[in-house]
Specification:
Elements: H1 19-45, E1 52-55, H2 58-65, H3 82-88, E2 93-96, H4 105-108, H5 113-125
Parallel strand pairs: 1-2
Helix pairs in contact: 1-2, 1-3
Organism: Popillia japonica
Protein name: Copia protein
């Protein structure tokens, strides 16, 4: 079992008009890193991996999983549909995670002490 973590902080290059769009674009960037890490681990171990990707925005998840035309997202640049293409090729499993369980929040936003403590306790229980 592998638990690879990659972290980066970068400002999005485009302005998002909704949280769904913002999460979709951020998900695309994360999946690019995920695909690279999956290839790296596969090359090092010669084992095929099943990779899970967790998102806490249900609208963005529906957008990834449903390739039909959405009138509110037709303006999203084609390059960000990379996430949908990789999902359709079954290169990763996309799962919803409740925001209260999203461990990545510690890297992406300011948290109060109780939320930090909760993330620490959760990560310890997951053996991370």
């Amino acid at each position: 079992m592998f638990g690879v973590v990659s972290w980066a902080s970068k400002r999005q290059q485009s302005v998002s008009t909704s949280s769904t769009e913002s999460e979709y674009i951020a998900g695309c960037q994360a999946v690019k890193e995920l695909v690279w890490l999956k290839c790296l681990v596969t090359d090092l171990t010669s084992r095929a991996l099943e990779v899970k990707f967790y998102m806490d925005n249900q609208s963005a998840i529906r957008l990834v999983k449903n390739p039909v035309f959405h009138k509110n997202t037709k303006h999203i640049d084609v390059q960000y549909h990379f996430i949908r293409e990789k999902y359709q090729r079954d290169e990763f499993k996309l799962e919803y995670i409740n925001t209260s369980q999203q461990l990545a929040d510690i890297f992406t936003k300011a948290l109060n002490k109780s939320r930090q403590k909760n993330i620490k306790e959760t990560s310890l229980s997951w053996n991370i």
